[in-house]
Amino acid sequence: MKLGLIINPVAGIGGSVGLKGSDGEEVQKLALEKGGTYQANKKAKIALNQIKDYIDKVTFITGFGEMGENALKELGFSYKVVGENKEKTTFEDTENLAKEMVKENIDLLVFAGGDGTARNIFNAVELSVPCVGIPAGVKIHSAVYANNPKDAGLVIKEFIKNPKDLKIENSEVMDIDEDKFRQNIVEAKLYGYLQVPRIQNLMQGSKSPGSSSEDEIEGMSAEIEDRIKAGNEDTCYIFGTGGTTYAILKDLGFEGSLLGVDILYKNELVIKDGTEGEIYDFIKDKEVKLIVTAIGGQGHIFGRGNQQLSPRVLRKVGKDNIWIVASHSKLYGIPDSFLRIDTSDEELDKELSGYYKVIMDWKRIIVYKAQG
Q: Which UniProt keywords apply (predicted)?
């Protein structure tokens, strides 16, 4: 079987430093200056490791160096390199590479990136070949990605085993305006569809708003306020990204960042839209609670738009100190009724998996399971 592999080397580089995306050379340069790190190849290798048992049954068509060649060489897969060998790559290289792969008659196109990468793949192949996305970007609204890199590998594995038996569906390619995104304005747009193997519990759905009513926000805010008042005055409170946490913080009297991570300490907003480094440095010697919400339609609490909450930050927080807030409509719109965890650290995903008491309103709690 012939598979295509395209890795966007810079996907996700802006996430941990609070840049809300990684599109554009200036943003990538700024991300590196602020301490951002390359993650896409690491995540691609997690997926590829799931198909090592089929190493003699597949051949890859891929790009030079960090666009796929290096990962495949390291893992021992057979491959052919196509396209130009360039030190710096752009979206045009992704699109040209995908077009070359279609000419090579691949059976499945695998790509690692975020919504911008999914758009590039759509521009190049449209509905001409089945595709599977390995989530590696900051924002992943599109329904063409697996829940996490390991699940992406399991989807590829099932395709190799039974390509004719899998259900292939047209799935949404979504993206937002990153310039507006950095100004706390979320505008998602449907760009098209890719053919994707839909396997229950492995592929994510598209993001949906799942908005909370004013009464629900006030109720969740009252519950959080009660807990803060009952807690240790030296505890710091991290508020994760999203409209629900932003609205709760605002109801408490603080103007946080809609799409960033904020910290409340001794009744003051001490960090607004913090980077991973700023967050860790502040909390490393303190007692801490983390307030997060789930993404509507997908269920992720970690790994989608909140990469500032890195593995070391989450290990410092600990599972017992995570408070999840979500409205009734958001919770019941999550496929399979599971919350999702994708920290890029398999061991941490296991540590954080389990049952959580989710705050839906004042004195109204529901138990939900989260899994990595």
A: Kinase, Transferase
